[in-house]
Write a structure and sequence with these properties.
By secondary structure, the chain is an alpha+beta fold. The chain has one domain: Transferase(Phosphotransferase) domain 1 (Transferase(Phosphotransferase), domain 1, Orthogonal Bundle). It is built from four helices and seven strands. The chain has a three-stranded antiparallel beta sheet with strand order 3-5-6. The protein has a two-stranded antiparallel sheet with strand order 1-2. Strands 4-7 form a two-stranded antiparallel ribbon. Strand 1 and strand 2 form a beta hairpin. Helix 2 runs antiparallel to helix 4. The longest helix is centred in the middle third of the chain and has 20 residues. About 20% of the residues are buried. The model has no long low-confidence stretch (mean pLDDT about 85).
């Protein structure tokens, strides 16, 4: 997260450690989850959907160019910057994200949220030793786009 610098990715400003805790200073986001915003609206119009998906894909492009997969994209992990905007988003919750690299360095090989996770993640077979790639995030974007 420290390496990421994009307006639609959650920014880590500082990290402090004590004996018992780790404190992270992150962006202040007051708009809540996209999931909650969707639940409060009757519908999103096409222009707003287009802008939101453009922002989401721009952030993913940045991550993927850095060889990082998020692997848990869903409306709950997309936060809105303010209460006024329906399209100014930030991707959060990088708990399952990983760098694309040697298979033995990846802690969780099958992960994500049912209904949003790509089929290549679910069908991963350790015996074949062929790992999926960052395109698994694009499947999740498609599901979010469908919901919108």
């Amino acid at each position: 997260m420290r390496r990421c610098n994009h307006p639609n990715l959650l920014k880590v400003h500082e990290i402090y450690e004590s004996e018992n805790s780790i404190y992270m200073v992150l962006d202040l986001l007051e708009g809540g989850e996209l999931f909650a915003r969707l639940a409060s609206k009757v519908f999103y119009d096409e222009d707003k959907i287009g802008k939101l998906i453009t922002n989401l894909l721009s952030a993913l492009n940045h991550l993927h160019n850095m060889n990082i997969m998020h692997r848990d994209l869903k409306p709950e992990n997309i936060l809105l910057k303010s209460k006024e905007s329906d399209t100014d988003i930030v991707i959060a919750d990088f708990g399952l994200s990983t760098e694309i690299g040697p298979l033995e360095n990846i802690l969780f090989k099958r992960c994500g949220t049912p209904g949003f996770v790509g089929p290549e993640v679910l069908n991963f077979d350790e015996k074949k030793m062929q790992f999926y790639n960052a395109k698994c995030d694009i499947f999740s974007v498609g599901v979010i786009f469908y919901i919108l």
